[in-house]
Amino acid sequence: MAISPHGGYVSIDEGADFYIECIGPSPKWIIAKRLISDTARISTQSVQMNRKSILTIQGMSSSLVGPYLCQTNQSVSTIILQITKRKLDMTKQIRFMGTNTNHTVSYGNDTRLNCFAQYYSEKAMDSPYIPKILWFFERRQLHHNEHKYIFGVDSLFIRNFTYHDQGVYFCRAFITLKTRFLMKIYPILVQLQNSSWFVNETLPPSLENKNCDNLNETVVTNNTISYCNTGGYVSNCTCPQGQIWNEDYSQCSSPMNQNQILQIIPNVSHMNVELGRTYTFVCRSTDDRIEPEWTYENGTTIDSSTHTEQSITTYILSEGRTLYLRLSPAVSGTYICRSRPEENSILKEESSITTTTSITLREQMIVQTNGISFQSSALAEYHVRTNSTLFVACRPEYFNFQLKTNLSYVPAATLIRIHDNNHFLLTELIDGLLIDRISKSESGMYLCMGMIPLPEQLITSFYPIMYGDGHNNLYSSRWSVTELKDRQTNISVFARIYEEYTDAEHFFDFAKKTAAILFQTKAASLIFAASLVLPIIMISVGISNLEECPLDRNIPVFVLVGGALALLKLLQVLWKQYNRHSAPSEEETTDTQNGSTFMEGLTTIFLIIWFIYGNYLILHYRLPRFEQTTEDPENWCSKNVYFLTIISVAYTYASVTIMILVVFIVVLTVHLQNRRRAIQEAKEAGCT
After folding, report:
1. Do 98 and 73 lie in a common domain?
2. Any stretches that span the bilayer, and where are they (predicted)?
3. Same domain, 165 and 61
4. Helix axes 493-503, 507-519, angle to 10 degrees
5. Backbone angles phi, psi at 149, to 5 degrees
6. Domain of 31, in residue numbers
7. What is residue 187's three-state secondary structure?
8. Within a domain: residue 611?
9. Rounded distance, CA 449 to CA 472, Å?
10. Which end of the chain, N or C, is surrounded by fewer C-beta atoms within 10 Å?
């Protein structure tokens, strides 16, 4: 079985329609329980009887984000949907213009599918860039064929449309910027008119022709490997003199020195990295006396930091003598792992021990040639809840822009768990890995490896995946996964504000989201907790002085009721903050959430009305007598009651004013910084 598009993660524009195809014997889509309320926008249909099931999403929204499972007679496959927030402008993103997502064709006729993709930069004078286009059907890339598929600049022409040509065709647009590689998918569903008339049409014959004499796995002889290539024949690859294949057959390298005590994972000397993506590497020491450190090629040490704006940093998890290097995004160059300088003195008498190793990263320009991509196959980092189950996808894709062959390939995928070197071979029956009940101290790395055995070369590529519970390590603030947790409260506050600036539709929307983020911080929780003192005093004074204000007996009532309402509101806020910051359990039901929101809204309305009433009392009775007199025994009010009324009203004014000022300063600062950055990028950015 297979899900198309092939990647494990698909980002869909907010409000857009989308199709996902499940191929296999008697396929059936399984929708998560939390999505049931939105089933009006989710539907399924069968395109080829008992072979294809199409999941249709009408108007993508944040409530539809999450995992979708397709079950067949043999296995279950998963795809995770993410959302791209809608923006008012069209800059810095690929857009599809006026493309029809649904076609109906008569049997045997020809049909044309259009895909008008454009990319707009922030330069006002620039014309829109035209991305490169590839077409995919049933996970595989289509190639120009005069008898079946004919490519135009922005179209696909299909000849002699038959029953088994039905399904979802995916137009993929690619563009390489100066520091990023962008890709976007557009689905087009094509069906036959009266398709039930052609149900008994036989499947086209398979193109595979295996003539490998039962060679089912790679055979290693000295420095030569033999493997069954995609053409169905045996290929042999020999390493240069003095080099051998590494354990994953991904590249040739010099034999490892027995005295080598530092090892970099992935175990390669050089590696291609995709623009704009986050990569993590590990350096291990096999000697208890040696502590590793990462440096640049010039010898400068890469410091450890959890600052969200630092693109290159190192950190340590639970393992001893293991140091992680995180590049976000990856930057080409050579990175060296060596023993710490203070440890070198220990090894002076053991000069044969090697305490330096390195890895060289090169930018992979897939759009200009071909290669394996992990853009949609895996996330770089996962933050999961304790005792929850994590789904890790590893579905590398092969993009061929040279179009020198009519064959298309889906790379063989393997997940490698580095702490015990356990290899999980992923197939059409098992296309992802479920890690059950993540423990509180668990964290680590998997390597997603994609491999294509072409006749002329064995193409292999890696992508590191970090996972684990972040409560017990210093680097948890950088981990997130949207389908498991919509918003992690332990992500850096400013990182979240900068993210919301990108997603906000207008200035006031950004101000609203910024205020929500600031009020969710632990500092805000401490201020709310300290503010409990005032309503408690108000309740105490109001109860003890109910008869101590003959001037207007409503003044002590105002103090008592105002204190009770303020206390209730603050407790509601603190309880919500506690649930947000503590380790969450099961999500609240919709009914519970609706009830809580109603009570909070009702309390807020009463507080506003009571605050206005307090202003009226103060203005109406300005500085009354605070002691009873014989001339006018009813014209006095307790000093404690009256001044507490003034303090409560003044405190409310001051709090609201300070909050507005803080939000305004943060919003203005972020806006100016992003504007300055956008102007700088506009001057330096270029497209290829």
Report:
1. no
2. 523-543, 555-575, 602-621, 641-670
3. no
4. 160
5. -120, 125
6. 8-83
7. strand
8. yes
9. 28
10. C
pTM for the structure as a whole: 0.61
Query: Is 517 exposed, middle or buried (CB count within 10 Å of its CB: 0-12, 13-18, 19+)?
Result: buried
Q: Which of these three, 165, 192, 219, is where a domain ends?
A: 192
**What is the per-residue pLDDT across 176-206, written as a single tens digit (0 to 9) for each?**
777 777 888 899 999 888 766 655 555 554 4
Same domain, 641 and 532: yes
| CATH number of the domain encompassing residue 180 | 2.60.40.10
Q: Is the pLDDT of residue 349 over 70?
A: no
Report the C-alpha gap between 312 and 28 in whole angstroms: 44
Q: Give tens-digit pLDDT for 573-618.
A: 888 877 765 543 333 333 444 456 778 888 888 888 988 988 888 8
Closest CA to 572 of 540, 528, 527: 528
Contact partners, residue 554, CB within 8 Å, separation at least 6: 617
Host H or E run for residue 529: helix 522-530
Tell me the torsion sign for CA atoms 464, 465, 466, 468: negative
Residue type, 511: A
Amino acid symbol at 108: G
Q: Which of 164, 159, 152 is nearest to 114 (CA)?
A: 152
**What's the rounded Cα separation, in Å, for the pair 414 and 341?**
37
| Residue 275, SS3 per DSSP | coil
137-151, 197-211, 650-664: the lowest-pLDDT one: 197-211
Instruction: Give dist(CA 139, CA 202) in Å, integer.
Output: 20
Token digits for 212?
């490998």
CA separation for the pair 170, 172 (Å, rounded): 6
Q: Are residues 97 and 18 in the same domain?
A: no
Whether residues 71 and 111 fall in one domain: no
User: What is the per-residue DSSP string for 98-166?
Assistant: S---EEEE-TT--EEEE--EEEE-S-TTPPPB--EEEEEETTEEP---TTSEEE-SSEEEE-S--GGG-
Q: Give residues with Cβ within 8 angstroms of 135, minimum separation 6.
A: 113, 115, 141, 142, 149, 151, 156, 169, 170, 171, 172
Domain ends where: 192, 215, 242? 192
Q: How far apart are CA 447 and CA 97, in angstroms?
A: 37
Maximum distance among all Cα pairs of the chain, rounded to whole angstroms? 118
Question: Where would I find the beta strands (DSSP E) of 427-514?
Answer: 432-435, 443-453, 458-468
| Single-letter amino acid, residue 302 | I
- Whole-number Å distance between alpha carbons of 609 and 453: 73
C-alpha 354/C-alpha 257 separation (Å) is 8
Q: Residue 182 carries which side chain, given as an amino acid letter?
A: L
What are the tens digits of pLDDT across the range 478-493? 333 333 333 333 345 6
Q: Say which residues have a Cβ less than 8 Å from residue 578's Cβ, sequence separation at least 6.
A: 525
Task: State the helix-helix crossing angle for 554-581 and 533-544, rounded to 10 degrees.
Answer: 150
